[in-house]
Design goal:
Residues 125-238 form the Peptidase S24/S26A/S26B/S26C domain. This is Peptidase S24/S26A/S26B/S26C domain-containing protein. InterPro entries: LexA-like, LexA/Signal_pep-like_sf, Peptidase_S24_S26A/B/C. GO terms for molecular function: DNA binding. 25% of the residues lie in helices and 27% in strands. With 244 residues, it is α+β, with helices and mostly antiparallel strands. The protein has 2 domains: 3-64; 88-241, Ribbon (Umud Fragment, subunit A), CATH 2.10.109. The strands form 2 sheets. The chain has a 10-stranded mixed β-sheet with strand order 1-5-2-6-7-12-8-9-10-11. Strands 3-4 form a two-stranded antiparallel ribbon. α2 crosses α3.
Length: 244
């Protein structure tokens, strides 16, 4: 069960006395739609999570705050024990740490490149326009990436530039991108090349030749409808992290 579903169950139990019906009424959804989310037949996408957060005044990014439960901690401890690894427990349960080149890479870990300064050209690819790479990396658990269907060979990290996705993804946050996942699906968070500008946006297809770009910071960055031919999907955002 993913973190957002756990948060959803916690929310229904905490604020709606465990009643899916009351929760569905509060967010203006049908019982069937809520039940599909609870049973994980339908994922809680970025747009839906944002809508619920705003409707219930939870604070933007509430669904992505890691939930802490005893059973989760026990599962994490068990995973560490089964890994036969000497790395610290944070790496083993899927969190990241800055790569120290003096520490050998453990077999359970993988390093993803961290690009700190990116320049894109309209209609061009991604990696050919990267500058100031400086051999920086972040370390992730191989198992965690595998469970999320992420091939490390096609995954990278960048630094968010600007506050269009704040407060969930503040300026300077590290963001993980799966460059192998470029298929446009509604209400999913992507990194895109928009006429030479790197943007992180929720995408929603409007017609056969147009797409809606949505930000978390809607006051400063209102929805923007653009032609499909004006964007290139770099990849799906699968992770982000920042100090607050």
């Amino acid at each position: 069960m993913d973190n957002r579903t756990k948060r959803l169950l916690y929310l229904i139990e905490r604020d709606f006395e465990g009643s899916q019906t009351k929760f569905a009424r509060a967010i203006n959804r049908s019982n069937a739609q809520v039940n599909a989310l609870v049973k994980e037949r339908k994922p809680i996408g970025d747009a839906l999570a944002l809508n619920i957060e705003k409707t219930l005044n939870l604070g933007i990014g509430w669904f992505d705050i890691p939930i802490e439960k005893i059973e989760d901690q026990e599962t994490q401890i068990e995973n560490v024990a089964n890994s036969n690894s000497t790395v610290n427990s944070q790496s083993s349960i899927g969190l990241i740490e800055s790569a120290d080149t003096t520490i050998p890479l453990d077999r359970t870990e993988v390093e993803l490149p961290l690009y700190t300064d990116i320049r894109l050209k309209a209609k061009n690819g991604f990696t050919e326009d990267i500058q100031n790479y400086n051999n920086q990396n972040l370390r992730f658990s191989r198992l965690t990436l595998s469970k999320n269907n992420i091939n490390p060979s096609y995954a990278i990290c960048i630094l968010a530039d600007g506050n269009s996705m704040a407060p969930a993804i503040p300026n300077g946050a590290a963001v993980g991108i799966n460059c192998e996942d470029k298929i446009l699906r509604d209400d999913i968070l992507y990194a895109i090349n928009h006429n030479g500008l790197l943007k992180i946006r929720i995408l929603r297809k409007k017609s056969s030749n147009s797409v809606l770009l949505q930000s978390y910071n809607t006051n400063a960055y209102p929805d923007e409808e653009v032609n499909l031919e004006d964007i290139i999907i770099i990849g799906r955002v699968f992770w982000w992290s920042a100090f607050i």
